[in-house]
Amino acid sequence: MNSKEMKRLEVMQKLAEGRMKRKKAAEELGISQRQVKRLWKAYRAKGAAGLVSQQRGKVSHNHLTEETERAVIDLLHSRYTDFGPTLAQEKLVEMDGVKISVSSVRKIMIEGELWKAKKARKVEVYQMRERRSCYGELVQIDGSPYDWFEGRAPECTLLVFIDDATGKLVQLLFVESESFFSYCQAAEGYFTRCGKPSAFYSDKHGIFRVNQPTSGSTDALTQFGRAMQELHIQIICANTPQAKGRVERANQTLQDRLPKELRLRGISDWEAGNAFLPEFIDDFNRRFAVQPRSSHDAHRPLSKSENLAQILTWQESRVLSNNLTLQFRKVVYQIQVARPSYTMRKAPVTLSLDAQENVTITYKGKSLPFTTFHKQSKQSDIVQSKLIDHTLKYKQKGTIPAPNHPWRKYPIHQNAPKGDILT
């Protein structure tokens, strides 16, 4: 008999001796008086043996048949080798129609050495922060560089927007790297679908925060900060990764689940991956999202005066020279106007650059015609530390000279292999 049954035997003996009433026995055992009556009847008929579970030593009614277990083992070895027990159980139920519990899958995977039981991690205590109360009140954003397509496509970055109150994914987007225009593309899709949140919660990436102000002032805005200010969206930067733990944990879950989903569907490029992401978001939210404390939706609709195509551009202010020229990114632009040129000397203008590298110059809200006057030679670029790996990986390489290129006529280059690069 186990400890539970020994406790029942002790109570039944007290009932038999008249030292305890049935109501008190029910309270001590934590069961109903009807259950006490059933146990008393079994005790009187068989003694202590009547209190022992009749299922002990027998096969469970819910045990797996040998055929089912063999089918699960074959599927785990063929399709779900690198899956975790929880995700493997979900796919076995959804895609293969096998009714099996997570614990059974975990047991089979451990026995087949497909999964190793993890040791409990040392608990690190951090100051708890409650979720926001309203959906759309705070959205955590981050970029996750990873080999999402497992070598079937170039490595890329997944931009992740997750609501703090509900844990819902509100936007996912595959992009080449974290940049101003990539975040603008993701934000535009999110705003169009859900509206504007009250605030974004991000890290201290240079896209969101001026980390080294040149003028000594900390009030300067980045281009993304300027765009969000025009849309009345606050940007809050976290001091540590743990502070925005919701999006950090979401990145880990996505790195485990999303590549396997893409593999099962045979998706091998960014375009098809982005087309699949809305379906993945719906499934993710169905599994992991929670109800907020308040039913109020804090998202705000876009107003008619908020032109996203203009707001989400790279904008810089310039002052025209005496000959109506300005410089931007090593290119000199010449303004073409019909009025006398002296009327626009030293005029402040705004230069806007969109994601397609189209330049627009405006003065008092009106567009000015211009021509490209001069392009300077390329100089060294300033690269943020978070983008060094991407810059080196995709750095433009030199050109390979043709077999009849004059470079090959020099004696020292005549025997150079055809693959040598001209630098």
Percentage of residues in DSSP E strands: 15-25%
Mean pLDDT rating? 85
Strand arrangement, largest sheet? Answer: 3-2-1-4-5
Distance between the termini: 84 Å
Element order: H for helix, E for strand: HHHHHHEEEHEHEHHHEEEEEEEH
Computed CA radius of gyration, to the nearest angstrom? 33 Å
As a percent range, the share of helical residues equals 25-40%
Identify low-pLDDT runs. Answer: none
From the structure above, extract its key features.
12 strands; elongated; four-stranded antiparallel sheet; alpha+beta; 15% strand; 423 residues
Q: If you had to describe this structure to a student in words, what would you say it looks like?
A:
With 423 residues, the protein is of the alpha+beta class. The chain has helices at residues 3-17, 22-29, 33-46, 66-78, 85-94, 102-111, 180-194, 223-230, 245-264, 270-288, 308-311, 388-393; strands at residues 139-146, 156-163, 169-175, 199-202, 234-237, 314-319, 325-328, 331-335, 348-353, 359-363, 366-367, 370-375. Helix 1 (3-17) packs antiparallel against helix 2 (22-29), helix 2 (22-29) crosses helix 3 and helix 5 packs across helix 6. The termini are far apart.
Write the layout of secondary structure elements.
Elements: H1 3-17, H2 22-29, H3 33-46, H4 66-78, H5 85-94, H6 102-111, E1 139-146, E2 156-163, E3 169-175, H7 180-194, E4 199-202, H8 223-230, E5 234-237, H9 245-264, H10 270-288, H11 308-311, E6 314-319, E7 325-328, E8 331-335, E9 348-353, E10 359-363, E11 366-367, E12 370-375, H12 388-393
Parallel strand pairs: 1-4, 4-5
Antiparallel strand pairs: 1-2, 2-3, 6-9, 7-8, 8-12, 9-10, 10-11
Helix pairs in contact: 1-2, 2-3, 5-6
